[in-house]
Specification:
nine-stranded mixed beta sheet, 124 residues, 3 helices, 9 strands
Length: 124
């Protein structure tokens, strides 16, 4: 048995400065670069309850979601059984393409333990 929940919505772009400025103004959400992960700019409060961030990528612009879990392998297997296809792995993150083409990253728990315990779904 494992648990998981949607953790973040990410705006992937090869133009992170322009995208961060636009989305910060459009959503009324202060933008702040992440010191130890400079490819991310967090948009504080843009989607209450979720991390919302602009991510610098060397690829096409898109949106993707991060699902945090207490068992990355089990959650990756669960989503694969539902039709997602794993396309890459980066550190502890498994990147999948969902039916329909959207990207989903399965990551270890990043939220505080109380939030994760209160909001995560439990899977057999």
């Amino acid at each position: 048995m494992h648990r998981s929940r949607v953790y973040a919505v990410l705006i992937d772009t090869p133009e992170p400065e322009a995208a961060s400025a636009f989305w910060s103004a459009a959503l009324g959400a202060p933008a702040q670069r992440v010191d130890d992960e400079p490819q991310f700019t967090v948009l504080h409060g843009a989607l209450p309850g979720l991390v919302t961030a602009v991510q610098a990528v060397d690829d096409v612009p898109r949106l993707h979601i991060d699902i945090e879990t207490d068992d990355v392998e089990a959650e990756t297997a669960r989503l694969s059984a539902l039709g997602a296809v794993e396309i890459s792995q980066w550190l502890e993150c498994h990147v999948l393409r969902a039916p329909g083409g959207q990207l989903v990253c399965v990551i270890p728990v990043h939220s505080d333990p109380e939030t994760f315990a209160a909001q995560a779904n439990t899977w057999p």
